[in-house]
Amino acid sequence: MAMSTRATAAKAAVDVVATYFSRMQVVASDPDALVFAFGNPHEMALPGLPAAIRAHAEPRSVDWYAYKSSERSAQEVVAGALSGELGLDFEPDDIAMTQGAFGAMSLAFALLADAGDEVVIPVPGWFCYPPMLRAADLVPVGVELAPVTFDLDVDAIARAITPRTRIVVVNSPANPTGRVYPPSTWEALAAALEEASRAHGRRIWLMSDEPYRRIRFDGVEFTSPAAFYPWTVIDYSYGKVLLAPGARLGYLALSPLIPISDRQELRAALFPLGLAIGWGFPDAVMQYSLPELETLSIDMAELTRKRDRMYGALTDAGYELTRPEGTFYLWGKAPGGDAEAFCAALEDRGVYVMPGSLFDQPHQFRISLTATMTMIDRAIPHLVEVAAHRDPPR
């Protein structure tokens, strides 16, 4: 075998997603296709994004395009904004600038876990957790969310923890379900992780995956678990709030509640590990642009209209959907109970939604609301008609 064991395991964990992604790229080239698969833009970028990049593309010094790690100015912007947003006193040294949330998570895994360690992840959850962990020689341990509500099941997480558990991953607002977890959930989880850390004589870390933190509906409030459990790191990506996933900019933040001696040790490792994982820092121009980008956001009023239009039409047609509190997805049961067959029937009509099998949920499906309202209006009759011809699940 030419590949390493971990490469083989990572490939196996992501093959279905990679195949689907490649197919959707081809489909997206058809102007008549109604693609609701990934959170990709279907309209031109926010004007402020290219404007900020243009403003900072012209060099202002001879080292403008020299090697850059975490630019101090970018760290200061993030620390200030994050402190105001989460009510915690982040310092610039707590921030590592990364290539989106992917880079932040890779850095966290390298920073906190050893080969063979177990990492607890939510199910359903983001489909790239398992392959990323396999590629890092770590072991993903899936824990089911509560049925129907998709609440975080703290008791199930506690039962899944073993002496090899090093990290628990949480995601709020959650992809694909759209749930935003309340402070009571974080209080219970913090107590469970503290108890398990004492029982196993080994600190269990919490990684809070927060790329959708600013995309919330109906005034739903957001609280980070970093406010309840000191041993927390936060990953974030600007690609969601800017609806520009190809503009790679994010960060890993150390909770300021981590004891200072441990935090100083972690801070000292951020640059060397950022280098070691493959120069995981954002491009210089993206970091220079951060003061402007930090203030930009997709139109939440328009996104809310899209959610309400699609959610209302489909629930009126008998769909069972989770009303999202955040993210830009709808998550629900596939009419007939077979997501692959349901999605195939839609594809025959030129409508593409994501089967839940990519999330290990063969009876569910996901719709991205980043489409245009025109696309939504064109797709709804097909979604209604396909559902009407599906047999109910047995």
* Beta strands, count: 13
CATH architecture of the largest domain: 3-Layer(aba) Sandwich
Going by helix content, strand content and strand pairing, the class is alpha/beta
Task: Give the overall pLDDT as a whole number.
Answer: 96
Largest sheet geometry: 7 strands, mixed
Give the DSSP E fraction (strand runs of 2 or more residues): 5-15%
Can you tell me the CATH class of the largest domain?
A: Alpha Beta
Portion in helices: 40-55%
Low-confidence stretches: none
* Beginning-to-end CA distance, first to last residue: 43 Å
User: Can you identify the CATH superfamily of the largest domain?
Assistant: Type I PLP-dependent aspartate aminotransferase-like (Major domain)
Query: Spatial order of the strands in the main sheet?
Result: 2-8-7-6-5-3-4
Number of contiguous helices:
14
Number of separate domains: 2
- General form: globular
Radius of gyration: 21 Å
Oligomer: single chain
Order of helices and strands: HEHHEHEHEHEHEEHEHHHHEEHEEEH
The CATH topology assignment of the largest domain is Aspartate Aminotransferase, domain 2
Structure summarized in a few sentences:
By secondary structure, the chain is an alpha/beta fold. It has 2 domains: 5-46 and 299-388, Aspartate Aminotransferase, domain 1, CATH 3.90.1150.10; 62-293, Type I PLP-dependent aspartate aminotransferase-like (Major domain) (Aspartate Aminotransferase, domain 2, 3-Layer(aba) Sandwich), CATH 3.40.640.
